[in-house]
Amino acid sequence: MSEKEFRRSMAVLPMGTVMLLTSLTARQIRYYDDCGLVVSKRTDSNRRLYSLDNVDRILEVKDYIKEGMNIEQIKRVYEKQKHRRDNKLSNSRKGVSDTRVREYLHDDIMKAGGFNVNNNPQFKQGHL
DNA sequence: CTTCTAACA
DNA sequence: TGTTAGCA
Asked: Do A82 and A109 belong together in one domain?
C-alpha cells in the first residue's frame, strides 16, 4: 500500500470536519454510519473518526440518496461490490482475466445503481 | 465546547 | 430527518 493510500485510509477526522466536508448534518452522517454504509473508527472516548476515503463514501451515499435510492438499495450496491472484490481476488489467483468481471460490474451497477428511466433526463417521460 | 445515545414531534 | 435531553 502506497503512503498516499495509507493517509487516505487514516481515520482522523472528527464529526465536525466531516459535516463541513459533506454539508450533511451529524444526524445524517451518524445514520449512514449506523446503517453500515461507512466503516468509521472510534476514539477511546467513543467519538467517531473518519478517513478521507470515508468522506468519499459518505459523499457517494449522499448522491445515491439524492437519486432517490433508499438505504437498503445503497447497501446492496456496496454489498455487491464487496462480492465482486472477493471474486476478483479468487479469479486472479486462478489466473482468470478480470475483463469479464468488469463486464458484470458495469451491468450490475446500471441495475443496482439505479439510472432508472424515471429520473434520468436522457429519457424524457411522457412519450414512451 | 464537541460529540454520543436514545427517544419523540 | 429535526431536535432535544442528559452524559462524557
From this structure: yes
Residue where a domain terminates, one of A66, A82, A102: A66
Beta strands in chain A (DSSP E): 41-42, 48-49
Q: Which residue has better confidence, A21 or A96?
A: A21
Q: Which residue is nearest to nucleotide B2 (CA to C1')?
A: A16
What nucleotide is nearest A26 when CA is compared to C1'?
Answer: B3
d(CA A48, CA A60): 19
Residues A25 and A10 in one domain: yes
Cβ A11 vs Cβ A51: under 8 Å: yes
Nearest nucleotide, CA A27 to C1': C1
> Is A15 within 7 A of strand B by CB distance?
yes
- The tally of domains found in chain A comes to 2
User: Given this model, what pLDDT does residue A74 score?
Assistant: 97
A46 touches strand B (CB under 7 A): yes
Residue A108 has pLDDT above 80, yes or no: no
Answer whether residue A126 shows pLDDT above 90: no
